[in-house]
């Protein structure tokens, strides 16, 4: 438990250090998200590393207990709640909301926006594929993606990015 937390901590500090040492990557990210947001993100990641060990107060933090996640997963499985939760995650609901805007130009009459929010694309392995299949059959003029793209606020983002890439392949309109 503690050894794996140390590895995570050193990997995170290494990634932050690499970002600060790589001027091209740093400049790209500042251009992409802005200086204040990048500083905020680095702060969140750094604070998370400190929180893993209670900021010097305690060595035992619940996030360091990898077995607690396994125990929770086991309890959900034996009670049948895990399969119910997975089923709920992929039970997509399409809601159609008509918005009446009296001063909207006529060219937008009947214009349809597909809004996907709080996707948490890394929560289940097959989630992005199932969501892409659900989106593929919808009719819309424009797609807007908002909200949380990954499940956790820290750590690796690659699974969420791969899920987003998969989803975007089936969105055949402009995406914002």
Keywords:
7 helices, 53% helix, disordered N terminus, 176 residues, 2 strands, mainly alpha
Which value, in Å, is the CA radius of gyration?
21 Å
DSSP strand content: 5-15%
Helix and strand element order? HHHHHEHEH
Query: Describe the biggest sheet?
Result: 2 strands, parallel
- The number of helical runs is 7
| Count of beta strands | 2
Strands ordered across the widest β-sheet:
1-2
- State the shape: flat
| Overall pLDDT metric | 81
Percentage of residues in helical conformation:
40-55%
Question: What's this, in brief?
Answer:
The protein is mainly alpha-helical.
Fold and architecture overview:
- The structure is a single chain.
- With 176 residues, the protein is mainly alpha-helical.
- Helix content is 53%, strand content 6%.
- The protein has seven helices and two strands, in the order αααααβαβα.
- The protein has helices at 2-21, 23-33, 35-51, 66-79, 81-89, 127-136, 158-169; strands at 113-117, 142-146.
- It has a two-stranded parallel sheet with strand order 1-2.
- Helix 2 (23-33) packs across helix 3 (35-51).
- It is flat, with a radius of gyration of 21 Å.
């Amino acid at each position: 438990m503690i050894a794996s937390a140390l590895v995570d901590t050193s990997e995170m500090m290494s990634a932050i250090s690499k970002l600060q040492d790589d001027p091209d990557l740093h400049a790209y990210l500042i251009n992409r998200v802005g200086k204040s947001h990048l500083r905020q993100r680095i702060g969140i990641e750094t604070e998370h590393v400190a929180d893993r060990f209670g900021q010097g107060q305690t060595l035992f933090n619940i996030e360091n207990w990898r077995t607690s996640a396994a125990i929770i997963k086991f309890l959900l499985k034996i009670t049948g709640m895990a399969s119910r939760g997975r089923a709920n995650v992929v039970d997509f609901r399409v809601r159609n909301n008509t918005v009446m805007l009296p001063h909207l130009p006529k060219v937008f009459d009947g214009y349809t926006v597909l809004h996907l929010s709080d996707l948490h694309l890394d929560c289940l392995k097959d989630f992005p594929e199932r969501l892409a299949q659900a989106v593929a059959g919808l009719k819309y003029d424009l797609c807007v993606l908002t909200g949380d793209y990954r499940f956790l606020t820290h750590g690796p983002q690659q699974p969420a990015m791969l899920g987003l890439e998969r989803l975007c392949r089936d969105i055949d309109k402009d995406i914002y």
